[in-house]
Prior knowledge:
Distance between the termini: 173 Å
Helix content: over 70%
Radius of gyration: 48 Å
Strand content: under 5%
Shape: rod-shaped
Structural class: mainly alpha
Number of helices: 11
Amino acid sequence: SRHFSTIDELQTGKKYREAIDVLKMIQSSMKKMIKEGIRRINAEKIDNAQESLSVLQETWGLNFEELGETLEMASSALQEGRYEILDAHIEEFSRTRERHHNVRLSESYASKVADVAPDLETLKGLGIDISGADELVASVSHSITNFNFEDTERYLAKLSEFIDDARTVKAKKRAGEYFKKTKGIFLEMKDEGIPMDEAKELIKGALGYINSKDYIKAIEGTLVAENALYEARDRYYKAATIVLLGEIKEMEGEGGKLGLDLSGITGMTGEIQTSIEQGNFLEARDLAVLCSDELKKTIESKLLDMLENSMSRLMPALEEASEI
């Protein structure tokens, strides 16, 4: 405004040349200010881009050299005053930066989904109902592919809630069912007199996990206890079968001395051995018991016949002796 007052004064004094010179000076000064302002605005664009690059590098721990090279070209355009070229480089930088960020973010989310997979497999392997998990995983994956990270966060939260529910509410129910079943097996074996000290301690441990509300460990412990019970039962039945096979062999020899053809009965020993080899120890024991009982009946029947025959031959002699 001071310069314009000077121009007015010069005009009033009819000093037109001096007024023109002052006007030219004002125009030159304004052009310089505008030029410096435009340069400052464009320099700020580069500074802002450099700051966003630093954040990206710090976030992902990578250099992103491609983006650095783009900013160098933008800086060269700034020095040369080629602002349209600078804007083009800044736009390219923004697009590329967003793409890199989205790719890294999608990889991060995909890694979270991958980390969940073993948990789901563990839950499924423990017999916990995870129906619906596949649909959630598919939704998360689809949102990641489309870089729709708001949906990704939403579906991941739902998936996390689903897993938490499976590990607590559903796992509690399953743990109770497994424990009830295992306890039933334990009581049946107890009634049979089967030794199972190791399994008994495992069952106590599983009950402790249930009481402490660690239902996943409770299920795992119960399954281990159940397996220990089956192993103890198998050992018991196998040992009993071996004892019975020894008795069967002895009875087979006794039957041979009595002139009995026991092949129809002792032929079951082949089936018994097959059952043992296949790990069907209860079946083997039951077959051995059946074979042993049949042999006992046959031998006892033969001995009874022999006794009756002996008695029938002895009776006349006894009667004759009583008449003397």
